[in-house]
From TrEMBL:
One of the GO BP terms on file: monoatomic ion transmembrane transport
Gene3D superfamilies given in the database record: 1.10.287.130, 3.30.450.40, Histidine kinase-like ATPase, C-terminal domain
Keywords: Ion channel, Ion transport, Kinase, Membrane, Phosphoprotein, Transferase, Transport, Two-component regulatory system
PANTHER family in the record: SENSOR PROTEIN KDPD (PTHR45569:SF1)
CDD domains named in the record: HATPase, HisKA
Listed name of the protein: histidine kinase
Gene Ontology molecular functions: phosphorelay sensor kinase activity
One CC-aspect GO term: plasma membrane
Length: 284
C-alpha cells in the first residue's frame, strides 16, 4: 500500500452510487500509477550510486581483509607466546614480541583511520577542521610517530627556517604525512634515505616525502592516487591501494594539491601544498 484516499460526503448530500464509485476507483488507479512511476524513476536514478557503493564495499572487503588479518595474527601470536607459563623467555625475546605487538598495532590503527577517512571521502562528508599550526611541529610529531617504522632506513627531516603558521586540519595532514612515510618505507630497501621536508613556495607551504627507492613508472604515475590502485611489483608488499587515494582526498579537503614525481630506479618524491590564504589574518 502506498496511500489511502479518504472520501468525505457528497456535494448534494446524496449517497455514492455505482457511477461515483467507478469514477473514484479510476481516479485512485491513475494516482497509484503516477506514484509508482515516480518511485521507479527515483530508484533508477539512485541505482548507479548504490551499485558504485556496493562495488566499493566488495573491493574494500577484498582489499583489507588480508591487511587486517596479518597484523592481528602477529599480535595474537606474540601475546599468546608471552603469556605461555611453560616458557621462560629471555629479555631479548620478550622485547622482540613486544616490538612486534607495538608495530602491528600502529599498522592496524593506521589502516582503521584510513578506512574511516575513505568512507567519509566516498560519502562526500569529509570536513577539514582547519586551525593555525606550526608545520615544523607537525613534521617533528610525524617523525616521532614514524620512528619505529623508519628505524631500518636513513631517515631525516629538512624544514626551512621561519615558516609562517598555516591553517589546516592537524589530524588529517598528519595522516597524509604518515601514509607517505609508510609508503617510502614499504617500497624501498632498508638503509636507503627518506627525507620529510617542508618549505615555502609562492602562496603555500609545500611538504614532501622523498625516497631513493625503485621509483614509479611514468605511465602509472597518474594512477597511483586512484582508489585501490596498486603497482605491479608491490604484489609482495602488504597494502590495499587506498593510502594515496586518502592522501589526495585529505589534501584537497584542506585546499591543497598533491602530486608525485618519480624517476625509474632513482626514487620518488610525493609533494603536497597547504595554501597560505592571503585574506586570513595570522594570529598574534
Ligand atoms: P595502502 O597504502 O592502502 O596500504 P598501497 O601502499 O599499495 O596500500 P598506495 O599508498 O595508495 O597503496 O600506493 C599505490 C601504489 O603506488 C603502491 O601500490 C605502489 O605501487 C606505488 N607507490 C606508492 N608510493 C611509492 C613509493 N614511494 N615508491 C614506489 N612506489 C610507490
Ligand atoms: Mg600506501
Amino acid at each position: 500500500m502506498i496511500g489511502v484516499l479518504e472520501v468525505v460526503g457528497h456535494r448534494h448530500g446524496r449517497s455514492f452510487d455505482d457511477e461515483d464509485e467507478r469514477l473514484l476507483t479510476g481516479f485512485v488507479d491513475q494516482a497509484a500509477l503516477a506514484l509508482e512511476r515516480v518511485r521507479l524513476f527515483e530508484e533508477e536514478a539512485r541505482s548507479p550510486v548504490l551499485a558504485r557503493s556496493d562495488e566499493l564495499k566488495s573491493s574494500l572487503l577484498a582489499a583489507v581483509s588480508h591487511d587486517l588479518r596479518t597484523p592481528l595474527a602477529t599480535i595474537k601470536a606474540s601475546a599468546t607466546s608471552l603469556l605461555d607459563p611453560e616458557i621462560a623467555w629471555t629479555d631479548e625475546a620478550r622485547a622482540e614480541f613486544l616490538h612486534a605487538i607495538d608495530e602491528e598495532t600502529d599498522r592496524l590503527a593506521l589502516l582503521v583511520d584510513n578506512l574511516l577517512d575513505l568512507s567519509k571521502i566516498e560519502g562526500g562528508v569529509l570536513r577539514a577542521e582547519r586551525a593555525w599550526y606550526d608545520v615544523a611541529e607537525l613534521v617533528a610529531d610525524v617523525a616521532g610517530r614514524l620512528a619505529a617504522t623508519v628505524a631500518a632506513h636513513s631517515f631525516s627531516t629538512d624544514v626551512a627556517p621561519d615558516l609562517p603558521l598555516v591553517r589546516f586540519d592537524y589530524i588529517q595532514i598528519r595522516q597524509v604525512l604518515t601514509n607517505l612515510g609508510e609508503n617510502a618505507v614499504k617500497y624501498t630497501l632498508p638503509g636507503t634515505a627518506i627525507v620529510l621536508a617542508a618549505r615555502r613556495v609562492p602562496g603555500a607551504i609545500e611538504l614532501s616525502v622523498t625516497d631513493r627507492g625503485p621509483g614509479i613508472e611514468a605511465t602509472v604515475l597518474p594512477r597511483v592516487f586512484d582508489t585501490f590502485y596498486r603497482g605491479e611489483p608491490s604484489g609482495r608488499v602488504a597494502g590495499s591501494g587506498i593510502g594515496l587515494a586518502i592522501c589526495k582526498g585529505l589534501v584537497e579537503a584542506n585546499g591543497g594539491q598533491i602530486w608525485a614525481e618519480s624517476w625509474r630506479g632513482a626514487g620518488t618524491v610525493v609533494r603536497f601544498t597547504l595554501p597560505l590564504d592571503p585574506d586570513s589574518e595570522q594570529p598574534a
